[in-house]
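Our collaborator T.R. sent over the components below with a one-line note: 'Predict the complex.' Nothing else. No constraints on interfaces, no templates requested, no preferences about which chain binds where. So this is a plain run: every listed entity goes in together, and whatever single assembly comes back becomes the starting point for the next discussion.
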Amino acid sequence: MALSDEQLVALTVKGDVSAFNEIVARWEGRLYSFVYRYLGDPEEAKDITQESFVRAYSHLEGFRGQSKFSSWLYQIALNLCRSKLRRHQAHPTVSIDGREEDNPLWALPDQRSTPAEYTLEQERAVAVREALAQLPEAQRTVIILKEYNGLKFREIAEILGTPESTVKSRLYHGLENLAQALGHLRAEGI
Amino acid sequence: MSMHCEDVRPLLAELVYDEADPGLAEQLREHLSTCLSCRRHQMAFLAVRQDLQEWQPAEEAVPNGMTFIAPGARRATPIWHSRIFQGLAAAAGFMFVAVLTAAAVNVQVQSGPDGWTVSTTFGQPQPFEPPPVSLDQISDLDAWFDTRLDNQLGNRLADGGVVTLASMPTQQFLTNGQVEQMTRRVAAMLDTSLAQRDLELDSRFDNRLENMQLYVDASLDQQSTAFYYTVANLVDGMQADHRDEIFEIGQQFGNLSADIDRRVAQADYRIDNLEMSLAAARSPEQ
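Returned assembly:
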């Protein structure tokens, strides 16, 4: 039977390195997925994901188990993401290696769809990404954690350190904003 | 108890994510069955969820996975924490300061016929004498520093490497010469790292161009093939739909061609005759 995260953490604290590697293998995909959707840049997402694990490892002895380990890990990643955004806003830079290649329109065509279908799919993806990016940070975070990471309201509340009612309210307003922003997709037949 | 729209709306998010309590979900569904406006609201939320699924990043997982290699670096007590090393460092520091002071003040003690004399040439530049630091100590530091830099460089370039790097507070017990040597080494390492980074970027840029070209080529191929088949199908369809008319037009065209050919032949024949008559008329024999 697979060990729980908390059991793996206990083993790591006792010096079992492989236990932490198991935690990394278990969570890297989901953490990367969250960070990528939050920042929208694959290279930065990789860096932040790595950094999150390093931070978690460095402060593992400080993890008291008051919340789930995964929530604690998400908290670390979220804090790093927020710092990154703050730094970007304070010192905006132009990336030399991201963005364009990240743009799904530049991806190789999917052989299963025709060029027209493929282009439409990619346009929808870009529209969704842009609409998400326009949301207030609090709403965007909740929507990413809920929709893409499939977390429960209780888990999101634990990560954000807010009451569940606040999470629900942010989700509701986020969906309303998205419905307004993405309404044109159907109106224009995209 | 029936619910009002203003109470229902904020709860719709819970319903579309299947996280409403069963009792509440029942009440919400009951309201939705009779309220078109709220049902539209619910449909809009469901549509947004469907739209959100359109953004599926191609790179969902970290490529090649990550390997965590920090424990050795974190758990092992760093060499500069050992008492022996700290003692050596303190001694070296003390000597360094003493030699620096002596070098700056240049104290000279000489014995002469008048006894011992002490003189200084304060302010005059004097050649710097490094303090006696043990070779082993330098060698250890050197090796440690090299390993750190190698790890840093290697991990920066290796995909997915994770390492915790400590800062290196060693300058206070190194001689100027050693600091300069280390600085040069760091500069050389950084140059190498930057050069490799440049190469990596160049390679990525080339790959991106190549991918774009591939995409454009593939897309054009697909589009031209699709267009060819569309036209071919269209022509096939038209031929099938208008087979009789096409046949009739073909016949008419054939008849017309034959008629034109016949008329041209007749005209040619007449022209020939006329030319012959003209030639005969101009002939001096007649």
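Summary for T.R.: The domain at 1-94 of chain A is CATH 1.10.1740.10 (Rna Polymerase Sigma Factor; Chain: A).
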